[in-house]
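Retro notes
What went well: the complex prediction finally ran end to end.
Inputs used:
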Amino acid sequence: MINALILSADNFEDTELLVPYYRFKEAGDEVIVASAGRGAIKGKHGYEVAVTKSLDEVNPDDYAILVLPGGAAPASVRKEPKALEIARSFFKHNKPVAAICHGPQILISAGLLKGKHATCYLSVIDELKESGAIYEDGEVVVDGNLVTSRQPADLPAFMREAMKQLKQ
Amino acid sequence: MINALILSADNFEDTELLVPYYRFKEAGDEVIVASAGRGAIKGKHGYEVAVTKSLDEVNPDDYAILVLPGGAAPASVRKEPKALEIARSFFKHNKPVAAICHGPQILISAGLLKGKHATCYLSVIDELKESGAIYEDGEVVVDGNLVTSRQPADLPAFMREAMKQLKQ
């Protein structure tokens, strides 16, 4: 059993949070949803998800994988210094980070994508390139510990690679 | 690779269709969404899913597993004679059938639950019992080829058992 950490906020893309959330639980893993405040966060399509820990309560050493769903949530998560610190800790220890859609925006703000092969949602491509990443248009791009995808339709490939990272 | 068949209609419970849909694709399987008409069906939370085949075009022999998501969709699917015929064919050949939430309503209409251990959404319990099923309150109930769950929060256990059926 591993612990998976999902960082998000209100207006997340519902399936990009819920599909990984249920997938890790199917595998018998524990899933922690962390956000700036406690309570619940609400997706663009109306799904509510309980926040298990506030960002301040998260010790990144406790988790085997970091998942960054998309939607409008990353626009607020990227403003949280603790969220960027968590992302940097995962990269420092070479632990898997899986970001989809707008999720890579958090990694851009953390300055973690320079020289990395990555993909993202259409509207994020420009800032991804400006951050020094090598953009690729594919359902999933894997570069070391980093797994990125473009959109909800890529979730099967995204989760396949995320689960593979955990078996390594 | 196997072929998975999802039977649904408008007003499906979005995650109960999309989580299995993406999960089978993650495993490399083909997923067919069938409904009374062609085009697209829309979930209660607004997700649209393309219909791959109309019910009339479905030959149940082509599929290894049948998935029946919940929401308000089963109320219309259960009125389709071809849908009931498809469900009966799966039971006849002892192939896995996974129904969640209101999904078991289709099996009730097909007369397939007599003497079977099963679960379902709270509001479906009475008619499930009246159909002769042995109701159990659990995140997942497995009886031979039949896998049933109560609600979206049960999806991890539901998919774990559905995937296990395919490995047998």
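What we learned: The mean pLDDT of chain A is 97.
What to try next: split runs per interface for comparison.
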